[in-house]
Structure to design on (395 residues):
């Protein structure tokens, strides 16, 4: 009884505080918009397209169109782990890659992998079914990526090819699939990897913290029948939106723990970032990330026993992913302070690629895992360089 009372008091205190804070703080309108709404807010035409994968997942792609202009080329942007299409549109207008590319004249498509906020449908399953959540980045690479890219290639004004920009898990998916799916890879004329992740042997920060307590987390979620991980929760976002402007240091701190110390973070913008992420994935995906961290190599899902692995792979251990098959011209942007794309792992990844594949590589000391997306100087250090490469490819 006493606990219930104190909980009620605490809840009241929190809502009073948020209420008071909301009167004194400026809230960016993008906090309460979806990706298509942000696109329209800035005067672009937004389109949403459903794409069905071979295994029945319905993914929603977003598209940023210019009102006028001839199209220079087609660019597909793929978000990272626990993220969504919003990542390319939620920074200030002239500092969001999606809008920068659209203004430059490109036909911009934004992917959303299965299980995130925007891609929650399936031809026969619902998100209440445990089977729906039976996926990891293996399936993002094997099913989601080809389905999304083939759709864009068929629908876009230019049917022959597209340029791909991936962030974090969006680079892992591409490394895996472009290395083995030559037919798909031959239609990609440029692969830009932001905070590239080919393995996570040296990951630290929140990734390592979660890794340490993952067995305990899974024990609880299993018991409760929860199969999704960190879905977008408006109530939690609301508290962040209202409290972050008052105590920006704490909110920035949360970012540093996840992504690494970021010298170029716009701390006033953190409420917007926090209102669109984390955008959800499966617990199995988190477990798979942890498996490759513990195994110290990128590999397929480990079923946990020699018999089961044999049944699925005809080998007792899960097959390792190879990146030596990659032939798509590639550009890297990485950060010296990145907690997930550790500099040592990035150097290892470069060594896995055939010579000549990596056309250019930029490493910035003060950059962490999310800097390539939102840093105060990303326009100059990242976006303008991407445009330079794109304009050459599409000339
Ligand atoms: C996509 O599919 C879902 C579920 O079938 C549906 O609710 C939604 O309206 C569709 N969106 C578009 C743009 O077709
Ligand atoms: C974006 O930059 C252009 C010029 O580069 C400027 O005309 C425009 O006002 C800017 N838009 C916003 C929303 O800041
Ligand atoms: C930082 O974020 C705030 C809040 O969204 C925004 O008003 C400001 O323009 C941003 N600063 C820069 C330099 O982009
Ligand atoms: C499974 O692996 C064994 C030993 O490497 C090989 O002889 C056999 O042909 C493989 N079977 C299949 C179905 O690939």
């Amino acid at each position: 009884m006493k606990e219930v009372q104190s909980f009620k008091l605490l809840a009241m205190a929190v809502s009073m505080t948020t209420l008071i804070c909301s009167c004194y703080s400026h809230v960016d309108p993008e906090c309460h918009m979806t990706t298509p709404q942000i696109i329209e807010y800035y005067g672009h035409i937004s389109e949403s397209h459903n794409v069905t994968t071979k295994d029945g997942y319905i993914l929603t792609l977003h598209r940023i169109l210019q009102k006028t202009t001839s199209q220079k080329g087609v660019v597909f942007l793929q978000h990272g782990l626990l993220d969504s299409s919003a990542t390319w549109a939620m920074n200030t207008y002239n500092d969001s890659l999606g809008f920068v590319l659209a203004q430059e004249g490109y036909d911009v498509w934004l992917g959303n992998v299965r299980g995130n906020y925007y891609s929650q449908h399936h031809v026969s399953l619902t998100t209440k079914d445990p089977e729906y959540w039976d996926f990891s980045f293996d399936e993002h690479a094997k099913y989601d990526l080809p389905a999304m890219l083939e759709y864009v290639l068929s629908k876009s004004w230019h049917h022959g090819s597209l340029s791909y920009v991936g962030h974090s898990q969006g680079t892992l998916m591409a490394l895996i699939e472009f290395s083995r799916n030559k037919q798909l890879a031959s239609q990609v004329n440029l692969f830009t990897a932001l905070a590239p992740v080919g393995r996570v042997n040296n990951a630290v920060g929140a990734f390592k913290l979660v890794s340490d307590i993952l067995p305990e987390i899974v024990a609880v979620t299993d018991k409760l029948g929860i199969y999704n991980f960190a879905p977008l929760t408006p109530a939690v976002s609301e508290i962040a939106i209202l409290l972050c402007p008052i105590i920006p240091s704490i909110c920035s701190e949360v970012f540093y723990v996840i992504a690494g110390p970021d010298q170029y973070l716009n701390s006033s913008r953190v409420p917007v970032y926090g209102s669109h992420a984390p955008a959800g994935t499966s617990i199995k995906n988190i477990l798979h990330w942890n498996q490759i961290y513990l195994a110290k190599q990128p590999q397929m899902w480990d079923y946990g026993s020699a018999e089961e692995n044999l049944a699925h792979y005809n080998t007792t251990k899960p097959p390792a992913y190879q990146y030596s098959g990659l032939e798509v011209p590639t550009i890297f942007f990485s950060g010296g302070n990145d907690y997930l794309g550790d500099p040592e792992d990035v150097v290892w990844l470069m060594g896995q690629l055939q010579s000549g594949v990596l056309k250019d590589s930029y490493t910035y000391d003060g950059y962490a895992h999310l800097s390539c997306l939102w840093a105060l100087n990303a326009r100059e250090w990242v976006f303008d360089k991407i445009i330079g490469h794109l304009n050459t490819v599409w000339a």
Observations:
- The CA atoms of residues 330 and 359 lie 6 Å apart.
- The first helix runs from residue 2 to 24.
- The chain has one domain: 2-393.
- Residues 93-94 surround 2-acetamido-2-deoxy-beta-D-glucopyranose (ligand 2) (CB under 6 Å).
